[in-house]
Amino acid sequence: MATSDESNRKRERDFVKWLDAIKADADAIFLLGDIFDFWFEYRNVVPRGFVRLLGKLAELTDSGISVYFFTGNHDQWMRNYLTNELNVKVYHKPAEFEINGKIFLIGHGHDMSFKKFHERTLNFIFGNHLFRKLYASIHPRWGIAFGQNWSIRNRKRKGRIVDPFEGLEKEPIYRHVQKLLCQKHYDFFVFGHRHLATDTPLNEKSRYINTGEWMKEQTYAVFDGEDMILGAYQK
Length: 235
Known about the structure:
By secondary structure, this protein is α/β, with parallel strands linked by helices. The chain contains seven helices and ten strands. Strand 9 and strand 10 form a beta hairpin.
């Protein structure tokens, strides 16, 4: 979810409707990051907006559905607000899960995708506890506004949300999970970040799945207990 203009409110409403549609069948919901365009938690202040989504997440966890949130490069400064207030489990790195006998590695994937030095540098800065404390010393009126404007300007400067697809062998997440598979078996590698819905066999027993994005295509993946399937929200 980006800034609070009407298009983003509509996107938020669609997302909440989708959560409503799946809650009867869901045992757990995994949100793979960049749900918020910018997020920074002060001790007593969080960014305004997103009330429909936050309320729905609270409703889901109150009903007994587990919700897992993996921070992305846009919301990696998340701390414990969602955990304390909504009972959402927050992860800052990929995590392993065993579900119905299948082994999953799930995460956002941005830390597998850095092609340039400045991208690695920014990730180090955003993950640095000292820098986070220094940023927290800025008054929220300026700190949150700066972060939101920086994110918007950066997207406009690039002129696109996602880098063009140039083949699987040039996809950093795909290459990375291939290396991980040499060390340990996983049935499913499930990541986001790339904004390209993908279901790719790695060998006869393992697959790499990218859930895509919610900006335009509104894609997701569902595990039915045996297999994982990509889908798109039908309004």
